[in-house]
Write a structure and sequence with these properties.
The strands form 2 sheets. The protein has a 4-stranded parallel beta sheet with strand order 1-3-5-8, with helices on both faces. Strands 2-4-6-7 form a 4-stranded mixed beta sheet. It contains 10 helices and 8 strands. The protein has helices at 2-14, 36-41, 49-58, 75-78, 109-117, 119-127, 134-140, 152-162, 168-201, 204-214; strands at 21-24, 29-31, 64-68, 71-73, 85-89, 93-95, 132-133, 145-147. It is globular. The relative contact order is 0.17. The longest helix has 34 residues, at 168-201. It is 52% helix and 13% strand. The chain starts with a helix and ends in a 6-residue tail after the last helix. By secondary structure, the protein is an alpha/beta fold.
Length: 220
C-alpha cells in the first residue's frame, strides 16, 4: 500500500495534466493505522516502503488535499501535517498513539506538531496519546475547515479541482516558498525519528504493548 501511494504521488508529480492530489479514505474512516501484528512479524527496516511514501509526500511540489472522515490513526494523522488543505468531517478524530505502543512519533510529527499547536498541547497528543477531536484540530491549526460528514469528500474534490484553473508554476513556487524554511529540518527529523522508531520497535516495551493491544478484550 505504501509503495503504491508513493508511486501515485510520484506519477502525479510527473504528469503535467494533474494540478493537485487528493488523499481520502471512506465514509467510515480515513485510516486505522498500521497493522500491529504485521509490525511484530515484519518490523520495517530503513528501506521499507513506508519511508518512500514519507519522502514522496513530504517533498511533493504540487498541492495535496486531504478529506478525512472518522478515525485518522498514527500515520493517518501525521501525513496530514504534510498536506496543504485538510478538510475534516465534524466527527473525525485524530490519534497518534505512538508512545502508548512503546514507539516514538514518525513523519516529523515530533517537530511539526509542537510547531503547529505548541508544546503543551503537543505533549498531550504525543506523550499521553490523547486523541484530538475535529473541532479542536481546527482550533489548533491542524485542519483547514470542518464539514458535515456527508459533505467533506465532495467539498475536498471541489477545492482540489480549483487548482486546475490556476497557473501551475505559480502554485508550485508559492508552495515551495511557504515550506522551504523548514524543509531541511523536516527531512532530518523524519530520518531521526525513523532511526529511533526502528530501535524502539525491537524493544521489549513495544512488543509487550503490541501484544497487549492485539489481545485486548473487544467490546460487543
Amino acid at each position: 500500500m505504501y509503495a503504491r501511494l508513493a508511486q501515485a504521488v510520484m506519477d502525479a508529480e510527473a504528469d503535467d495534466g494533474i494540478a493537485a492530489m487528493l488523499l481520502h479514505g471512506d465514509r467510515q474512516a480515513f485510516t486505522a493505522g498500521n497493522d500491529l501484528e504485521d509490525f511484530l512479524a515484519n518490523p520495517p527496516g530503513p528501506d521499507a516502503p513506508v519511508f518512500g511514501f514519507m519522502q514522496a509526500l513530504s517533498t511533493a511540489r504540487k498541492p495535496v488535499v486531504a478529506s478525512v472522515n472518522g478515525m485518522a490513526v498514527g500515520i493517518g494523522t501525521t501525513m496530514l501535517l504534510h498536506c496543504d488543505l485538510v478538510y475534516l468531517a465534524s466527527d473525525a478524530l485524530l490519534a497518534m498513539p505512538f508512545v502508548k505502543l512503546g514507539l516514538c512519533p514518525e513523519f516529523a510529527a515530533s517537530r511539526l506538531v509542537p510547531a503547529r499547536i505548541g508544546h503543551a498541547r503537543a505533549a498531550e497528543a504525543l506523550l499521553l496519546s490523547e486523541p484530538i477531536r475535529a473541532v479542536d484540530a481546527l482550533a489548533m491549526g491542524l485542519a483547514t475547515r470542518l464539514l458535515p460528514p456527508d459533505d467533506v469528500f465532495d467539498f475536498a474534490c471541489v477545492q482540489a479541482a480549483r487548482f486546475a484553473a490556476l497557473p501551475p508554476t505559480a502554485v508550485r513556487e508559492t508552495k515551495r516558498l511557504m515550506k522551504q524554511g523548514d524543509a531541511a529540518g523536516v527531512a532530518r527529523q523524519i530520518q531521526d525519528e525513523a532511526a529511533v522508531f526502528a530501535d524502539l520497535l525491537h524493544s521489549d516495551e513495544a512488543r509487550a504493548a503490541f501484544r497487549a493491544f492485539v489481545n485486548r478484550p473487544r467490546g460487543g
